[in-house]
Design a protein that fits this description.
heterodimer; A: alpha+beta; six-stranded mixed beta sheet; 35% strand; elongated; B: mainly alpha; 13 helices; 75% helix
Chain lengths: 351, 266
């Protein structure tokens, strides 16, 4: 188990991040660029000492400035897969994987034969004699993974493992990485800015924004109940915040009132709305929807078969409608419409 | 795309061409003049003259020795300058480039005050062991190293600064200690800079004149290198000077041309 209570300053970044990763758990640190995700990994790996706090892995203190303890990276049982893999270009693929074993004083022949075993496990035995530059992105990642795992670390860190790949390779490599991650029994922490990577690869998410944790929980929880605009946008939900004002009423921060199906669970609440649940009408609707308001179209953005409509008004949300609806309603920037959402489509949770 | 002229490589702005031609001409014409004055018929005899062979031997020995010494002590210095936060580092860097900008004669004089018979270090060493650095082959090598070492240090330091240090981080997370990181990762990464620095260092040592003549003197067969022999011959025997120059040019081209493409490609 990893407990990393990291506080450090680096340039503009002021990082205060306290996380726990249980045995056999895969945790993803999710956040925008510059949030401090990579710095967090570097702190755990020992490449960046913490200013305050501590890093403890399986009961062994790796970094604790107050106690005067700092274990250098070379002596930490931690494997790190870098974003752009950083395979040593002047060595063969086999020697890259054997590097960590050689560093631990294992004789060359033994190190190479063990490395060959690891290459075989990631399906790259045939590339052993090649130089890293001849490998594809996905292959490079597997070599980097084999190199990190060859030293049999107790913890595996992955920095943006899929960011360097093109969209076509990602899908395949993501599935494969998921399989490899499952076979590693130690503690696993990965960093990504891609919610899909996080949802596919991790059991639990920690959202880091501007050096602070803004939300953590299971992937399901975070995806359904975003607590920041960043997460809401990542998972494609509208996030509204307000206060409970009665059994079925929420007053939003802007003053507008929403009728909700479930009673608000606390005084300060967040309301999540799927863009597909927001209906648009040319005239004020008369139907069963409990929430209606006038809105103005700010922008239209075409998706696969749906169009995302950015609305401004007493409640600013994104609606997602069909292309036919855009034509029917004659939607264009500046158009005046009515928006409606059913009470049952509003997810209410405590902030 | 237009159907007109397509070609590989960039076409230079028109103003650059005459200036580039001027620069090239300025570099080439002196060599042509030298070739035109060369005593081709008696060249064979002149080149087998002991004055020439001695000078060539000394020049090659001292230039290679200076390059070797520079590699051994210069790479560590470059590493320290590039990677550590030691106090006075900017002063140290200024001192490193000083021999590049200083007139070599001044360097030679400074070497004398340091390592001469009555020098700061040379005095005690001479009194204790009878060993004298100046006016010997060791003196030539010392003078060459003094002026050539900075070229290696500056080049390798630049290479170290531009190298991606995260490779070293990767090696460290794999368990490599500092020495292993340096030997197995850092050094191979900056190998092109080391090669370029060594070539510059060697070239500078081969052409060294001022510090050598001041510190090591001009003794044929002992300290007289090619540049010294050329300078002396210009006074007495112009044809011999030209012959010596041709040898120097041939040796330089022979070493530089094969290396230049590799080093520019890196």
């Amino acid at each position: 188990m990893l407990r990393a209570d990291v506080r450090l300053r680096l340039g503009e970044l002021d990082l205060v991040c306290d996380i726990e990763v249980g045995d056999g758990e895969v945790v993803a640190l999710l956040g925008p660029n510059g949030a401090g995700k990579t710095t967090m990994l570097r702190a755990v790996a020992g490449l960046m000492p913490v200013d305050e706090g501590s890093v403890v892995l399986d009961g062994a203190v790796l970094d604790d400035p107050a106690a005067g303890v700092f274990v250098p990276p070379a002596n930490r049982p931690v494997g790190l897969v870098f974003q752009d893999y950083l395979l040593f270009q002047h060595m063969t693929v086999l020697d890259n994987v054997a590097f960590g074993l050689r560093a631990r004083g294992i004789a060359k022949a033994e190190a190479r034969s063990r490395a060959a075993g690891w290459l075989d496990r990631v399906g790259l035995a045939a590339m052993a004699g090649e130089r890293p530059r001849t490998l594809s992105g996905g292959q490079s990642q597997r070599v980097a993974l084999a190199r990190a795992l060859a030293t049999e670390p107790r913890m595996l860190l992955l920095d943006e493992p899929l960011a360097a790949l093109d969209a076509r390779a990602r899908v395949h490599v993501r599935a494969e990485l998921r399989r490899h991650l499952r076979t590693f029994s130690g503690t696993r922490l990965l960093v990504t800015h891609d919610p899909v990577d996080a949802l596919v690869l991790a059991d639990r998410l920690v959202v880091l924004e501007a050096g602070r944790i803004t939300q953590q929980g299971t992937t399901d929880e975070v995806a359904r109940r975003p607590r920041s605009d960043y997460v809401a946008e990542l998972v494609g939900l509208n996030l509204l915040t307000g206060r409970a004002a009665g059994e079925h009423t929420v007053v939003l921060d802007g003053g507008a009132e929403l009728v909700v199906a479930d009673p608000p669970p606390g005084p300060e609440v967040a309301v999540a709305v799927r863009p597909q649940a927001v209906a648009l009408h040319r005239h004020r609707p008369e139907g069963s929807a409990r929430n209606t308001w006038p809105a103005r179209v700010v922008d239209l953005e075409a998706g696969h078969d749906r169009v995302r409509v950015q609305l401004d008004g007493p409640i600013s949300v994104v609606a997602e409608v069909t292309v036919a609806a855009v034509a029917d309603l004659d939607l264009a920037p500046g158009a005046e419409v009515w928006a409606s959402v059913k009470a049952v489509d509003l997810g209410v949770y405590e902030r | 795309m237009s159907a007109g002229r397509r070609r590989r490589g960039a076409r230079p702005p028109w103003g650059l061409v005459p200036l580039a031609a001027l620069a090239l001409a300025f570099l080439v014409i002196p060599f042509l003049a030298l070739l035109q004055r060369a005593p081709w018929s008696s060249l064979g005899d002149r080149l087998s003259n002991p004055l020439v062979t001695d000078a060539l031997r000394l020049s090659l020995i001292s230039a290679f020795a200076a390059t070797g010494i520079s590699l051994v002590i210069g790479i560590p210095l470059a590493w320290v300058l590039a990677r550590t936060e030691m106090p006075g580092r900017s002063l140290a860097r200024a001192i490193v480039v000083l021999p590049m900008v200083l007139p070599p004669v001044v360097g030679g004089a400074a070497l004398l005050f340091a390592f001469g018979r009555r020098g700061l270090l040379g005095g005690p060493v001479y009194d204790g062991t009878g060993f004298l650095l100046p006016f010997s082959l060791w003196g030539v090598i010392a003078a060459n190293t003094f002026v050539a070492l900075p070229f290696l240090v500056v080049t390798v330091e630049a290479g170290l600064r531009s190298a991606d240090r995260r490779y070293e981080d990767a090696a460290a997370t794999l368990g490599a200690g500092r020495w292993m990181v340096f030997r197995r990762v850092t050094l191979p990464m900056v190998a092109p800079s080391v090669a370029a620095g060594a070539v510059l260092c060697w070239a500078r040592a081969l052409g060294e004149f001022g510090a050598t003549v001041t510190f090591a003197g001009n003794l044929q067969g002992r300290t007289q290198t090619m540049p010294l022999a050329v300078f002396l011959a210009l006074e007495s025997d112009r044809d011999a000077a030209i012959a010596l120059s041709l040898v120097l040019i041939a040796v330089s081209l022979g070493v530089l041309v094969p290396l230049r493409d590799r080093w520019l490609a890196a």
